[in-house]
Amino acid sequence: MRQIFQIKMTTFILVMSAYFTLCFNYPILAKIFDLSHSVSNVLFPYTAPIVLMAAFIIIFTLLCWPYLFKPVMIFLTITSSMALYAEVNYHTLFNNAVIESIFETNSDEARSPSRINTFLTKFIFMKNDSSQNKKRHNQH
Hints:
mainly alpha, single chain
């Protein structure tokens, strides 16, 4: 089988560490930069991305086993993107309490009709909102 795209594992770890640091943690980094305006050391806010990047490099290097790394990275990327979406759109910070609540939810609660109705209602209203926004945009 011909390989179209090939990348070394160290390069992949560096790229994914930078991606997780700058993209998935940008709300936290933005908050650190906002809060550090009154700090006397101008370089202080720039240490946060460096520390995060170093932590991700260490974590991803420890997970770098054959047949384990790709599925774990896919899972981490998908769950991190969902957490980022919730943070950006709903201003929900995923801390220990939220994660505990997720794991303590039993499957009957998750499959309850009220959640399905909520999802369908949200989907319908999002569809209506987007069509109304297009109409408003076309009128201007």
